[in-house]
Amino acid sequence: MLILGHDDVRAVLADRELDVVELVRDTYRRHDEGDTALPHSVFLRFPDSPRDRIIGLPAYVGGPQPVAGLKWISSFPGNIDRGVARASAAVVLNSLETGHPVAFIEGALISAQRTAASAALAADLLTGQARPAGVALIGCGVINFEVLRFLAALLPPFEQVVVYDHDPARAEDFAVRAAALCPKAAFTVAASATGALAAQPLISLATTAGEPHLDLSPCAPGSRVLHVSLRDLTVEAVLGAANVVDDADHVCRERTSLHLAEQATGGRDFIDASIGQLIRGRAHAPGPARTVVFSPFGLGVLDLALAAWVRTQALRQGVGTTVTGFITGNDSGQAAAAAPSHTNEGANP
Fold first, then answer.
1. CA distance 61 to 293
2. An example of a Gene Ontology BP annotation on this entry (predicted)?
């Protein structure tokens, strides 16, 4: 059993943003081709603390190096006020030969980076006809920090970055730290979410909102909205925009804004395309005059694909801790199952 802690994962992922984006692109392609197995995520909620949850995301991704396993991720928004991370996660990878667990990996950074890579990839696909000169980030936490990192790696340099958080001090601190990601950009802290929505044609929403609280009327026509946190937009905002999702069956659940829109209309005709369809050319991005919302539920196949890639790199680099005797059986056989089958670092696991 290979165990990778947070520092191990961070070391493996350092400066690999473009590799992660391509891995996410390939995984979305495989998912659209039907080369995955993706049961619905399981939400564990608590009667006395409805904002808190722990989610289990089992998944399988096919290909030359297929992978299966589970991400187990908690979201406790009250942690922000305690000065600790809102989300924590672990990923278990299983051998497809024996079913034995072969890796236990700290998953919060994997989850944040696959989310950010997904958002950046969507921004790239949706802005090809009109590249934005700036971006607005609503919610100044870990996720939007990673979103900005990946946007900066994938898109042309931004001239303007506008940030907003309900805690002004948090927004100010975010702007100072994020300046290193976009050294040529001017950073501005917006006084309101409405002001941030109006400020730039590319917007990323990554908040802890549990109910819709924003409409898109302040946005300029043709804005691209990365609706990462899924519950910010009103039903009217969703229905008034073109909508791209990662998977309609997954995103129309658990009272997301799109789930509420489905309940209000009795169907999903308001969903225009999936990101997998855009990647494979089975659908085209809406024109630059239409406001587009990208709502990714966050598919476990992305977590598993990235975790397997991290494990492969860690084995090559000698990173992490190997524990023997974790399960009954032949540890040498388990070690053989854990070894990478080739040395092509760009390949999808």
1. 26
2. siderophore biosynthetic process
Instruction: Provide the pLDDT for residue 327.
Output: 84
Q: The dihedral of CA 224, 229, 232, 234: what is its sign?
A: positive
- What pLDDT sits at residue 342? 31
DSSP per position, 287-323: PTTS-EEEE----HHHHHHHHHHHHHHHHHHT-SEE-
Name the burial class of residue 224, with classes exposed (0-12), middle (13-18) and buried (19+) by CB atoms within 10 angstroms of its CB.
buried
Token pair belonging to 290: 């239409």
Give how far Cα 256 sits from Cα of 1, 91, 180, 275, Å: 37, 24, 33, 18
Residue 335: the pLDDT is 42
Neighbours of 318 (CB within 10 A): 7
Q: Give the integer Cα–Cα distance in Å for 240 and 176.
A: 35
| Cα atoms in the Cβ-side hemisphere of radius 13 Å centred on 238 | 29
The upper half-sphere exposure of residue 64, i.e. CA atoms within 13 Å in the direction of its Cβ, equals 11
pLDDT of residue 330: 53
Backbone angles phi, psi at 221, to 5 degrees: -55, 140
Helices (H), the chain: 6-13, 17-33, 79-82, 108-126, 142-154, 168-178, 193-199, 235-239, 248-251, 257-265, 275-280, 300-317, 331-338
Q: Are strands 101-106 and 2-4 parallel, antiparallel or unpaired?
A: parallel
Mean pLDDT, the chain, whole residue set: 93
338 pLDDT more than 50: no
What's the confidence (pLDDT) of residue 114?
97
pLDDT tens across 274-284, in order?
999 999 999 99
3-class state of residue 329 by DSSP: coil
